Amino acid sequence: MGTAPGSDGQGTGEPPVAHVTVEPLGIVLDVQPGETLIQAAWRHGYRWPTICGGGGSCGLCYIELDDGDDAFLPPDATERSAMAMLFASMKPERLARCRLACCARPVRDTTVTKRGVWRERPGQTPL
Ligand code: FES
User: Could you tell me the CA-to-CA distances from 66 to 45, 55, 127 in Å, in that order?
Assistant: First the structure.
């Protein structure tokens, strides 16, 4: 009886490393140790824009940081490379405020902006 840890939005029992507010939806996600932001959203039952399924290659998951880039671990080489390739036309000052939600691991409470996040309900389809 019961559910697997992390499958019900309640986490693994470990204290979250961060609470991330996602605007404009206004939801707050508790992020467990080792989780990326998109993994936390999925665990909470939210759908997040993606084509690659969290593989770091489509760029659709990108977030805008509303509260400083020190709220996440620094991007690794894979994420830096993907961002540079996918967003080559983005102005550098905007690019510096963006991360891939499938790669970004928060280290403190923060707020990000991501349009297109929605909670899946039975029978509901995205617009
Ligand atoms: S989900 Fe595709 S790059 Fe993050």
Answer: 23, 24, 26
Containing domain of residue 69, as a range? 18-118
List pLDDT tens digits, range 82-96: 999 999 999 999 999
Residue owning the nearest CA to atom 1 of ligand 1:
54
Cα 2 to averaged position of ligand 1 atoms, centre (Å): 31
Q: Is residue 76 part of a domain?
A: yes
Residues 5/12, Cβ–Cβ less than 8 Å: yes
Is the pTM here over 0.90, yes or no? Answer: no
Residues with CB under 6 A from ligand 1: 50, 52, 54-61, 100, 102
Q: What is the CATH number of the domain that holds 40?
A: 3.10.20.30
